[in-house]
Amino acid sequence: MTCYSLDGLTPVVHPTAYVHPSAVLIGDVIIGPGCYVGPLASLRGDFGRIILEEGANIQDTCVMHGFPESDTVVERNGHIGHGAVLHGCRIGEDALVGMNAVVMDGARIGARSFVSATAFVKAGFSCEAQSLVMGAPAQVKRSLSDEEVSWKQAGTREYQLLAQRCLQAMVVCEPLAEVEADRPRIADRGLRPKGSSSQ
Questions:
Q1: 167, part of any domain
Q2: From residue 173, how far is each of 2, 24, 165, 176 by CA, in Å?
Q3: Which residue range(s) make up the domain with 135?
Q4: pLDDT by residue (tens digit) across 152-172?
Q5: Are 75 and 58 contacting, i.e. CB atoms less than 8 angstroms apart?
Q6: Over the stretch 98-147, which tens digit does the pLDDT of each residue have?
Q7: What burial class does residue 183 get, using C-beta atoms within 10 Å of its C-beta: 0-12 exposed, 13-18 middle, 19+ buried?
Q8: Is a pLDDT exceeding 50 seen at residue 199?
């Protein structure tokens, strides 16, 4: 990762978190246990504080930033899809923000809620737990079923396992010039890190 201290504040990354080498962390950034930060993510703690709580993931090209004195927080087991922008907001425990969604300042997404892909969540928005939030500007469309929440939780567990896999097995390499005969699928390689269960 590219990591910068700013004004005496150095990013904090728990040893069990995985941060891709192309991600950028600046200043007041705190990444908790078991988190995953994907390629080209930008977590800029140059004005406010950026926090990923335990088991959260923020995927490729996501941005976390905020105004001075703000906290931008993804709570425990939060799941942030590719290209999303979070600015001075709070994403509740076990909630999901879809790909290319934008969540603005002071917004609070309830626990176990989904923000749909490409939604625009205005500043100051809030929703109850287990809400489906869609549109631009975003509105609560309905409550989520327990089955929908379980589907999201399974996806989040895969990213928690991915953090372990990357810590254990990702290495810089040169590409091959040709495809090998009988090239295996990545699923054939066994996706479970050493010591993990299949649950």
A1: no
A2: 19, 21, 16, 9
A3: 2-143
A4: 999 999 999 999 999 999 999
A5: no
A6: 999 999 999 999 999 999 999 999 999 999 999 999 999 999 999 999 99
A7: exposed
A8: no
pTM: 0.92
Determine, yes or no, domain membership for 51. yes
CATH number at residue 97: 2.160.10.10
Please report the beta strands in 32-179, taking only residues with DSSP state E, as ranges in sequence order: 36-37, 42-52, 57-58, 63-65, 71-74, 79-80, 85-87, 90-91, 96-97, 102-103, 108-109, 114-115, 120-121, 131-135, 138-143
Q: Going by DSSP bridges, is the β-strand pair 102-103/85-87 parallel, antiparallel, or unpaired?
A: parallel
CA distance 165 to 194: 9
Amino acid symbol at 12: V
Q: Please report whether residue 130 resides in a domain.
A: yes
Q: How far apart are the first and last CA of the chain?
A: 30
Number of domains observed in the structure of the chain: 1
Q: Considering the domain boundaries, does residue 157 fall inside one?
A: no
Of all residues in the chain, what percent are helix, strand and coil, respectively (each to 5)? 15, 35, 50
